[in-house]
């Protein structure tokens, strides 16, 4: 932390804090130093130490009880601090922060509030319920908007705690009295809205909405307002005019007022409806303008449920699918990936259920995205998409992940062809962690490429894994037999790793006084399809074996002995060089190769 001299460095920059009875330096950022306050909080959150998190709460509470949030205030810091406190079970501190956010009218996200309820329920903290409900009421009165499903979820969690019917009724009263009270006024007559449509004055329609949203007390009125405006804006999809009415309407609502959470929700859900209307008639560029406007206004539409006409609702997965398809049809791979990333690649979850068709459409969408990234040689982006296929993350998708093997192998092969070793290595790690079948030829190529790039530690790790998977035949004579048979199709890197195992397995014999130079033998086995007459391929294998011995550090010495009845070369491994190799490498080699 780069702090001005007026701030106590012991308090802000040590775990113990300031122990002086009277300190002449500041323990709270002064007014105007909000950027410093945010930097301190970010640092404490990153460290995750409970004592520092408690100090972060003290700093936040003391600073914002005297200061209104300014341009340097970061909502993400507030949300991250609350989540960090929850992870450390500092529930009292969470309530302190939430009460301050009500006072300064800067509220956390709905997800954070739901996490508080979830933690109280999961830990069965019955005594915390009264405080939680009081805080909940304050947040809703201050403008926090929750969808009806959120209220139902909160009631479900309270039932798990076996709270009294009186406490449940309090939450139900909050739901009926406050959720829509501060969102919308009584619906203006539809002809007024129709007039805006006929005059194509979309800014005036936005003003109409702002004037109408100050006192709507029932859900029916809210529905009428939402559906009437959404209907007017979606009807434009039938025209060939180049402008997109939703964009002017959204600007009027969000830029010409002080929008609250309800406005953001309304614009988001209306934008979803408009996006669907353009998607249905294949007006991709207009659909993209809607999505770009939502992104510009920082409307998290991927976290919302939408009404898509005739009262039908759409799942979160379906909404994200449609948005990504629009970007893809406009040629914007980054836009499609951004939408998926913002939705955390979620398909099916308890709060966001979807059907099998949504998951199938997501799968087809991601397949298309991966192929387009591969065609542009954007391998890291393709790998990011692959990692988030349904069933590969911590969602409740029931999907057979083995079907992804071909696509992963295609990525790895493309990476090899373009010398992108880092991505191919990461992809192999991911496949192994998810038990997705990997093409043994590609795994061998990775081991060889790592060895040739002097990344021997990784090469050995993958070679060991490949052995356990059955990628290589059992290296006969490998275990304490003093005879090693190496298949001739191996690369020089694979041959060297096989020799290393051979050395470690026979270390006690090599280091004994009874060892003789003639007893350690290596036979270079011919492949089954190799004929004696076709000797050029086998001769190349001989050269690879000699190269493998030279690659070793220290070098190993091979001495040609004879050719056996199968016309296979037989070598002896010089005992002195083997002994020297063990003396210099046995410490790590024993840990690596003694399975």
Q: Summed up, what is this model?
A:
This protein has 595 residues and is mainly alpha-helical.
Secondary structure elements and their pairing?
Elements: H1 9-13, H2 34-47, H3 50-64, H4 75-87, H5 91-103, H6 110-122, H7 129-141, H8 148-160, H9 165-178, H10 190-199, H11 202-212, H12 219-235, H13 245-255, H14 261-280, H15 284-296, E1 306-307, E2 313-314, H16 316-329, H17 333-342, H18 356-375, H19 379-387, H20 405-417, H21 421-433, H22 440-452, H23 456-469, E3 483-487, H24 492-505, H25 507-510, E4 521-525, H26 536-551, E5 558-563, E6 569-573, H27 575-593
Parallel strand pairs: 3-4
Antiparallel strand pairs: 1-2, 4-6, 5-6
Question: Strand arrangement, largest sheet?
Answer: 3-4-6-5
How is the biggest beta sheet arranged?
A: 4 strands, mixed
The count of β-strands is 6
Individual helix count = 27
Low-confidence stretches: 178-193
How much is the radius of gyration in Å? 33 Å
SSE-based structural type: mainly alpha
Can you give the helix content as a percent range? 55-70%
Q: Architecture of the domain at 483-527 and 535-593 in CATH? A: 2-Layer Sandwich
What is the straight-line distance between the termini?
A: 47 Å
Strand content: under 5%
- Overall shape: it is globular
Question: Can you identify the CATH class of the domain at 483-527 and 535-593?
Answer: Alpha Beta
Protein name: Protein TOPAZ1
Organism: Manacus vitellinus
GO molecular function, one term: zinc ion binding
Domain C3H1-type: 2-30
Structure description:
It contains 27 helices and six strands. With 595 residues, the chain is mainly alpha-helical. The strands form two sheets. A four-stranded mixed beta sheet has the order 3-4-6-5. A two-stranded antiparallel ribbon has the order 1-2. The longest helix is centred in the middle third of the chain and has 20 residues. It is globular. About 3% of the residues have low confidence.
